[in-house]
């Protein structure tokens, strides 16, 4: 498919931070959008708006009526977004329900909201460091919380759905995604306490770029089930990446050097598979502080 114009696209989690921007973008590109949310969404761009539960077979069956493409964003997006049981069960059942029904209907492509947490370290109960930098799709994972487990298993569900029904699935491992103002606030926090971001590589993504990546995932020529990291090219910490790693991950190997505030995550798959590169970068100036003068934070 060369574009989404004219296609009927289901967006689950349509009222969410990423979902609302995605609905607007897809509608502006000419898609006919079915917006499904657990709360009444307000989407002037959607021509079909549904309130429903993505763990419900009946609700998802209704939402998939006449659909050509699927964007699955509905989830409890943090380990503290509910009880451990609720976070895990809602996430894995929703993803299975949506992809299984879409695959059985012969829908050819879906984009799923994954997470950087699928490799397990950002929300882990143990303060571990990545095995190496840049973080890439082969990084060893260590799962210590139910949210990360759910996102890892969502990727397994995508692979199963492709193998069983032939539905092509792109899972986007999102970092922290937010509005420009909220991202600037996070950057100010990292200026004072940059050690907090080491396990995520100080990565971030503007919601507008997240929505664009979703559109690219829907229109890409990839086949199979793919999961890969997304992020802006730069970090949200106002320090040079090499100096941050020297201070907060001194014993962690690096497979290459990083220039200025280059994010220490391998973004090659996103560029090669769906042609994505972030367009919105934080206007943060790199400080001239040497590593020895970075704010003190206990090493994990």
Automatic annotation (TrEMBL):
Residue span(s) of domain NAD-dependent epimerase/dehydratase: 9-181
Pfam families noted in UniProt: Epimerase
Signal peptide: none
Domain of life: Bacteria
Residue intervals passing through the bilayer: none
UniProt-listed Gene3D superfamilies: NAD(P)-binding Rossmann-like Domain (3.40.50.720)
InterPro entries: Epimerase_deHydtase, NAD(P)-bd_dom_sf
Similarity comment: Belongs to the NAD(P)-dependent epimerase/dehydratase family.
The protein's name in its UniProt record: Epimerase
Species whose genome carries this gene: Leifsonia poae
């Amino acid at each position: 498919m060369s574009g989404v114009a004219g296609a009927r696209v289901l967006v689950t989690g349509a009222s969410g931070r990423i979902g609302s921007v995605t609905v607007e973008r897809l509608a502006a590109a000419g898609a006919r959008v079915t917006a499904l949310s657990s709360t009444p969404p307000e989407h002037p761009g959607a021509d079909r708006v549904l309130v429903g539960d993505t763990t419900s077979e009946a609700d998802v069956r209704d939402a998939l009526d006449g659909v050509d493409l699927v964007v699955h964003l509905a989830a409890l997006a943090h380990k503290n977004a509910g009880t451990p049981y609720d976070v895990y069960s809602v996430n894995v059942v929703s993803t299975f329900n949506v992809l299984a029904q879409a695959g059985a209907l012969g829908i050819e492509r879906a984009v799923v909201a994954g997470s950087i947490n699928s490799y397990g370290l950002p929300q882990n109960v143990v303060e571990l460091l990545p095995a190496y930098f840049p973080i890439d799709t082969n990084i060893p994972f260590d799962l210590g919380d139910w949210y990360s487990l759910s996102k890892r298993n969502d990727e397994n569900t995508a692979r199963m759905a492709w193998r069983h029904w032939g539905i092509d699935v792109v899972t986007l491992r999102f970092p922290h995604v937010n509005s420009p103002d909220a991202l600037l606030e996070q950057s100010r926090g990292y200026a004072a306490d940059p050690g907090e971001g080491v396990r995520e590589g100080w990565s971030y993504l503007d919601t507008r770029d997240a929505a664009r990546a979703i559109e690219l995932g829907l229109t890409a020529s990839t086949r199979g089930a793919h999961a890969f990291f997304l992020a802006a090219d730069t970090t949200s910490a106002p320090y040079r990446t090499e100096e941050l790693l020297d201070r907060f991950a001194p014993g962690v190997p690096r497979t290459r050097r990083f220039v200025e505030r280059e994010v220490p995550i391998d973004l090659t798959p996103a560029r090669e598979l769906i042609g994505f590169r972030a367009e919105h970068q934080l206007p943060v100036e790199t400080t001239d502080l040497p590593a020895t003068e970075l704010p003190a934070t206990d090493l994990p």
